[in-house]
Design brief:
This protein is α/β, with parallel strands linked by helices. It has 13 helices and 14 strands. The strands form 2 sheets. A 7-stranded parallel sheet has the order 3-2-1-4-5-6-7, with helices on both faces. It has a 7-stranded mixed sheet with strand order 10-11-9-8-12-13-14, with helices on both faces.
Length: 342
Amino acid sequence: MRILFAIQGTGNGHLSRARDVYPELTKYGDVDVLVSGIQADVAVPFPVKYKLYGMSFIFGKRGGVDILQTARKLKLFRLLHDIKQLPVEQYDLVINDFEPVSAWACRQKKLPCISLSHQCAVLNKNAPQPESVDIMGMLVLRHYAPVSAAYGFHFKAFDENIFTPVIRREIRDMQPTDNGHYTVYLPAYDDAAIVKHLSQFPEAKWDVYSKHNKQPFTSGNVTVKKIDNRAFIESMAASSGVLCGAGFEGPAEAMYLGKKVLVIPMLTQYEQHCNAAGAAAMGATVVQTLDQKYYGIIRKWIGQGKAEAVNYPDITADIIERIITKHVPHKQKTTEPLSLSA
């Protein structure tokens, strides 16, 4: 059986999750990987057959997506060409993690496309929602990568086809400690703004990982470093808490490690506001921007005691088995399905 595994390359969460999904897919057939997007910092330990430009949202430096840069970076004719040329008809199964080229290629050729993503879980009617609904943001989520069936990940199993997060093996293998610092990853803010605000909390030591800075520096109680996957997860595992954007994998991994979490959703990014609602349901603290008016909440968060680790069992193999059982004709499977244990 031939499988196409298409992954969104904007941000790091999709590629981090793919590290655990890919080996499970290879148990059922030959897997080709497609990655589209230009904003990831995480490498993958498996071959990528299709590296496409795709359609990326560009992080700004003031707390949100840079709409102007996103528009400037969009290469519409290249996108349409890649959609037309991608040979999705050569595959028995297309697994899609919020990746637009393969999704629209399947739509145009009237072929099944199976979503395995966080975004489809966010759209589920039973998932937590922010107080104010962003109609345009919801439309983008629904139509960016259209699929024929959806299996999603969220902070809790809010519905039948929503599963708890995929926690990558290198996080599961960490032994959490508490060295007294706070690990920070806020890619939508520039370093100067982060240092300016976090310097107002001298009672805390801040270990900041930056998309924007190439040379590390220290300013008072704030140390800023270039983003590095291994250094970041080691810092997170040894921290008192994690301050990050309201993505999905980052807060989920911090919760799994038993860290108290403070999330700041990106401005004009509806998915992140949905994530913030989900994280709050798990006990995380949420502030809307990195701003002086939220200093009281941040200081209260710093003063909180330790959080309890969230139990996220390793059920990736069971999820892949369910998808194979449901969506692949029996004669095309290379292994007999096992009984679903979760």
